[in-house]
Amino acid sequence: MSSIAISGFKTRTIATDRSDSLRPLALAAPLLLLLAFSFGAPIVALLSRAVYEPTIANALPRTVAALRVDSARGVPGEPVFGAFAADLKEAQAAGAIYEFAKTLNTRLPGARSQVLRVARLAGQDRGVTKEAIIKAAPLLGEDQSWSAIRTGTNRFTSFFLLSAFDLRWTDQGTIGAVPAHQAVFTRVFGRTFLIATLVTLATLALAFPLAYVMTNVRPVIAGIVLVLVLLPFWTSILVRTAAWTVILQKYGLLNDLLLWLGVTSERLELMYSRTGLIIAMTHIQLPFTLLPIYSVMRAVQTSQLRAAQSLGARPFTVFRRVYLPQVMPGVLAGCLLTFILCLGYYITPVLIGGASDQLISNFIANYVNVELNWEMAAALSFVLLVSTLGLYVTMTRYLGLDLFKMG
Amino acid sequence: MISTGQSSSLREALAEGALSSTGEQGAVAGRKTGTAATSKPAAGRENAKQTDAKFVEFIDVEKMYGHFQAVRRLNLSIGRGEFLTFLGPSGSGKTTTLNMLAGFERPSQGVITLDGKSVDRLPPYDRNIGMVFQNYALFPHMSVADNVAFPLSVRKVPKAEIGPRVTRALEMVRLERFRDRKPTQLSGGQQQRVALARALVFQPALVLMDEPLGALDKKLREHMQIELKQIHEMLGVTIVYVTHDQSEALTMSDRVAIFENGAIVQIGTPDALYNEPATAFVASFIGENNALDGIVERVEGDQCLVTLPTGLKTTAMAIGDLCPGAPVQLAVRPERIASAGGDHSDNRFQATVDGRIYHGDHQRLLARLPSGQVLTVKISPDATMAAGEAIDLGWRTADCRAFPAGVAPDGNTANTGSVS
Questions:
Q1: Residues of chain B with CATH 2.40.50.140
Q2: Widest pairwise Cα distance in chain A
Q3: Which residue on chain A is closest to B142 by alpha carbon?
Q4: What is the pLDDT of residue B24?
Q5: How many domains does the structure of chain A reveal?
Q6: Lowest-pLDDT range of A282-291, A293-302, B32-41, B121-130
Q7: Tell me, what CATH number does A307's domain have?
Q8: Considering only alpha carbons, which residue of chain A is nearest residue B195?
């Protein structure tokens, strides 16, 4: 009797345990669903465009089939040209010809107008020969154009990702550098990382002493300093950037001040220059670097520093062996936060930076908004995302740092 | 509390030269007979003898914080090898005094000497004083062994020497097997033992302890008190200990200095403080006391006759200058009141039992005098007395002390007990 009761009790306990562990998850379900639909899915969908590009393959079903029986290299024979003309005619009828021409143009610069000309030719239903097509579209008489078309007919493509690194598949089927005049992205990525590094170092140089002072003054003064640091933080980044325009421009406040003080004899070009960009970004990023450092510095007990001194450590040794190791997580967290945020700067480089100070985000925005080349935008975003995540994982894994724990 | 096994392990640690490199077995004995007790090399001992009684000296030391006088005209000598406790309520200046000795605060006035030399211009890291803090102050990013090795490594002690010395220091506090743990993985008592090992490993002649057991629970605190006392006796190191817990002070100290409002009001051995408190404050702060207000009627030599408000009279020891008509505060220890008419009682009173509190090894009787005052009386655990019963109380003249009234900071502390 009693054993039955006990076993029944046990079963109930286990059942309760299981539903207990599921219940919090169920409570969070609406949030998780929202995140999946509004955050996860769009990112995956957008990023997938970097490697999945079916436009060319969809537009050229006959050409793809004809190419399969043709030689693998160089300008193909008459049947392929015939199939190509038929595909274009159908694409024009279906209204898909412009998108196809634009897509092909990204791989084969200058191909857009020539392809449209061939399509018109094919639409007139006169016997279109290889010779006539090449006459209308001289690009199609070149070997490298066809290798571009051949790779383009593959729905899954590494073209955009390679482009993001200024690389391409060569005619020999190996990976090589794009021509120098087309290479832009490695330089832009390099510039983005360089500016992010400079801004991070600048904020660190300002934030570390400031945080130290804040932990060692009376709480009232620390509170006032904190408000002063945070005040700009509560205004829009656009407003702050515009304010820097007022300060930095040629006839702006800073130049007036420098001239008045006699520091410089002529007005400096601070706007539309890298110096101005770094000044503005440093100002905007300062709280992000400062707050994690301040929070760890506040946690270091004065008695530990006193203990270290009483144990015989000189001030510099106390700083190096007791203080610095304890505030290092905050320093790294602050720097990592600022560095990652700097990688994604968009509006400030647009408004304050010069033409040669545009960061990777500006290029991504340009591809999305102006060029309508979402594949390239996706590829650049993908590289940016992966390098950022890689940086974060490296920092957390090897330096034992956890941004989520830092709060 | 401490088993003999633990105690012998301490002895072994010392025999191996746990902390005194010259293996001074005589140091312990020496300290007890009041001669040399030092962990310094023998060469300095002749010279050291002269400064033994004044190993540490405060001369007219004052400390001001703005207009607030934290320490006033402090004069104090600490003997080599002594265990001296600063006891007082919070804000009485004891920690400030300790911090001035450690070098974290500078006196506004006066001189502090250590081993005969002024430490006025000596920064804390050059004073060679070990310090233990209430919150342990262990370095959280270092292992236990690294914490203990810290004072040695900053002194550029050779690596080969550091290892064994750290091991011996950890053996002394019985934490050898925790050497690779981080401080946060240890209990409070273990952490404080690590802090102790760290403060002793570099063989300082003087160790300061700022309420080191304050964060521990009662049982662990009592255990650590005995352990600390043993380590002190083993090493012969001079210890200055700060606490607000009077029982802790009485348990461990050679001498106790009672602080009140930035000044030392009395300094002496624990039994002297307990039996012969110099002020009403000391009487109320150390141990439990029955406090009664009265007026002096007559003074005869060192004794006086005091009238209680209701007309009851008692003889008492006159402390300080008393003259007839002066208000006084009487202090009688609960265990000095004889119930049921002791033979030696010079003063006798009728009282009624208000209640009885059983404590196991003794009982406390709450006895109401006809005047309405309630006295606490310590009686045998076997006595049976019911509430409402009439009893005789009495005390000897020598056990009742009359202090000038108005000195006690706390007017309402009848039956003042421990402040802890």
A1: 289-404
A2: 101
A3: A322
A4: 39
A5: 2
A6: B32-41
A7: 1.10.3720.10
A8: A307
Q: What is the pLDDT of residues B30-61, one digit of tens each?
A: 333 333 334 444 444 445 455 578 899 999 99
Whether A321 and chain B come into contact, CB under 8 Å, resolves to: yes
| Alpha carbon separation from A273 to A91, A188, A291, A349, B254 (Å, rounded) | 47, 16, 29, 9, 74
For residues A120 and A238, membership in a common domain is answered with no
Is the confidence at residue A336, as pLDDT, over 70?
yes
Structure tokens at A308: 């270290």
Q: Which chain B residues are Cβ-neighbours of A311 within 8 angstroms?
A: 125, 130-131, 150-151, 154, 198-199, 202
CA pair distance A130, A146, nearest whole angstrom: 13
CATH topology of domain B289-404: OB fold (Dihydrolipoamide Acetyltransferase, E2P) (2.40.50)
pLDDT for position A327: 92
Q: Do A211 and A83 have their domain in common?
A: no
Q: Name the residue in chain A with its Cα closest to that of B210.
A: A303
> What are the tens digits of pLDDT across the range B225-237?
988 999 999 888 9
- Domain match, A294 and A210 both: yes
Are B124 and A325 in contact (CB < 8 Å)? no
Instruction: Give the C-alpha separation, A385 to A378, whole Å.
Output: 10
Tell me how close the Cα of A335 comes to any Cα of chain B, in angstroms. Answer: 21
Phi and psi angles of residue A74, each rounded to the nearest 5 degrees, phi first: 75, -170
| Chain B interface includes A394 (CB < 8 A) | no
- A63-80 pLDDT, tens digit per residue, is 888 888 887 778 888 888
pLDDT at B343: 58
The model scores a pTM over 0.90: no
Q: Do A304 and B139 make contact, defined as CB atoms within 8 angstroms? A: yes
- H or E element at residue A44: helix A41-48
Predicted complex: ipTM over 0.90: no
Predicted confidence (pLDDT) at residue A392 exceeds the cutoff of 70: yes
A325 and B CB contact within 8 Å: yes
Q: Residue A7 domain-assigned?
A: no
In degrees, rounded to 5, the angle at the alpha carbon of residue A21 between the alpha carbons of residues A20 and A26 is: 90
Of the pLDDT bands very low, low, confident and very high (cuts 50, 70, 90), residue B129 is very high
What is the domain extent for residue A358?
185-406
**Distance (Å, whole) CA A380 – CA A374:** 10
A306 Cα to chain B: minimum distance (Å): 7
Chain B neighbors of A308, CB-CB under 8 A = 139, 150
**Of the options 3.30.930.10, 3.30.460.80, 3.20.20.370, 3.40.50.300, the CATH number for the domain spanning B4-128+204-275:** 3.40.50.300
What is the percent of chain B with per-residue pLDDT over 70, rounded to a whole number? 83
Binding-face residues of A in 326-355 toward B, CB within 8 A: 326
CB–CB contact A311 B154 (8 Å): yes
Residue A79 lies in a domain: yes
* Nearest partner of A240 among A284, A275, A197, judged by Cα: A284
Average pLDDT over residues A330-343: 92
Which of B124, B126, B137 comes nearest A301 by C-beta?
A: B137
User: What HEC string does A151-189 produce?
Assistant: HHCCCECCHHHHHHCCEEECCCCCEEECCHHHCCHHHHH
Contacts of A313 in chain B (CB under 8 A): 125, 150, 154
A151/A191 same-domain check: no
Q: How far apart are CA A187 and CA A165, in angstroms?
A: 9
Please report the pLDDT score of residue A8 as a whole number: 43
- Regarding whether A230 and A131 lie in a shared domain, the answer is no
Q: Does B130 touch chain A (CB under 8 A)?
A: yes
Are A98 and A198 part of one and the same domain? no
- Report residue B10's pLDDT band, with 50, 70 and 90 as the boundaries: very low
Residues A226 and A352 in one domain: yes
A276 and A388 fall within a common domain: yes
